[in-house]
Structures are given as structure tokens and as C-alpha cells.
Amino acid sequence: MNQHGSSAPLTVLLADVQPAVRQGVRAMVEASGGLAVVGEAGTTGEVLAASTRHRPDVLVLDPLMDDAPDLRMISQVVRLTPETGVLVFSTLDDDKTVASAFHAGARGYLVKRATADQILRGIHAVGAGEAIVDRTIAARLAALIGPAPGPRSYPFPQLSDRERDVLEHLAAGRSNTAIARELALASKTISNRISSIFGKLGVADRAQAIVLARDAGLGLTRA
Q1: Is 87 helix (H, G, I), strand (E, B) or coil?
Q2: Which of 30, 117, 142, 171 is deepest in the core (most CB within 10 A)?
Q3: CB 14 within 8 A of CB 46
Q4: Is the pTM above the cut of 0.90?
């Protein structure tokens, strides 16, 4: 089911200055099932026109067009078609570009070394209204987009409150059974939340999630 409550495939618009990149992502998306590419764009003007015409669930966008990143495109798309989630897919991963993309309204940011599975997971996450970032960016994200209100900003703002509780226990080395018992939830619920956490943090397994969380200071004070 997509973000509009329909069981129809998520619609995807691909925007990249390089036709070969668009064609490669299109082939991967179309082979995956559950996704439908509704168009391609290679310039800023084409991105805005195609977004308005197709109103896709997800825009997969490399803002690096005309030899410079045009991050205004993101805010323009969000304003024109607020139902469209923007997933940046770019070679750029410098702090300024990442921060500007999220401030402009992007929901996700992947670097072009991402695997096919990571790209597809990113499209589905953004299409479902969630946020997702490349694992190399995740640990820097809170600092990049600025502190949240309050005495201490949380290092992974893309996680829900319930997912944060699970990650804290995960970082402390607790098993799924122990986490379920402490949070008074079913083991299946914990498994589902952990899978969601993996996707949002851009990690492949439990060990990577624990390392990322502990590097951010989570789980270190628990017994």
C-alpha cells in the first residue's frame, strides 16, 4: 500500500543529468515489482514539468545538473507537488549539500555507491512517508541539519519514538526476547521495528546497527 492508501504500485520519477544512470535505475526499478516509473528528466525544467504532470509518489533526484547542485529544485517540487517524496541519489555527500537537501524538504539521501537493495529500500521508505539516509551520512545527520529543540538532539531523527526505544536496547546488547519483555511487546513487533531501523539507518545487520548506535553514544550507560 502506498502513502495515499492505495494498493497500486508506487510511481517513480527519475531525474539525473546522465541518461545511462536513469536507464540503469529504471531497469532495476521496473524489474523489482511494486514500482512504476512514470517518467525521466535530465534538466531542472524537465524535473519541475514532469513532477507537476505526473505527481509521482517518489522523485529520485540527483540535484547535480548544469555542473552545479540545484537544491532549489527540491523545495520547488515539494511546493508544487507536496505528495511527492524526494529521494536524493547523488555522488555528492559533503555536509553542506546533505544539510541543504534536507532543509529543502528531501526525505532521503543515498550516495551513488548504494546497492540495488538499498536504492529500492530507499524508494519504498520515502514512498511510505519515512526518512532514510546513506549509512555513511546517518551518524552525521543530527549535526548536519541542526539541533532539535531541547537540551540534547537525538542522533537519528529519522527514527520514530518507538524505534528509538528499541535501538537504545539494541545498542545495550539486549536480545529481541529481552527487548520484547522490557517494552511489553510481542517479539514479532520488535523484529518488525528492528527491520525498519535497519532500513532507516542504512545498515545491513544487527552488528552494524549496534556499532552506529554506540558511536552516537547510545546504549553505553545501560547495565
Answers
A1: strand
A2: 171
A3: no
A4: no
Helix, strand or coil, per DSSP, at residue 185: coil
| Domain boundaries, given as residue ranges, for the chain | 10-141, 159-215
| Torsion sign (Cα): 113, 82, 73, 104 | negative
Check residue 95 and give its pLDDT. 81
Q: How far apart are CA 167 and CA 170, in angstroms?
A: 5
| Beta carbons of 156 and 164 less than 8 angstroms apart | yes
The tens digit of pLDDT for each residue in 116-164 reads 999 999 999 899 888 788 877 776 766 655 554 444 567 888 888 899 9
Is the domain 159-215 a CATH 1.10.3470.10 member?
Answer: no
Beta-bridge partners for 59: 13, 86
Query: May I ask the CATH class of domain 10-141?
Result: alpha beta
pLDDT value at 22 more than 90: yes
What is the DSSP annotation of 125-188?
A: HHHTT--EE-HHHHTTHHHHH-PPSSSS--S-TTS-HHHHHHHHHHHTT--HHHHHHHHT--HH
Cell of 10: 508506487
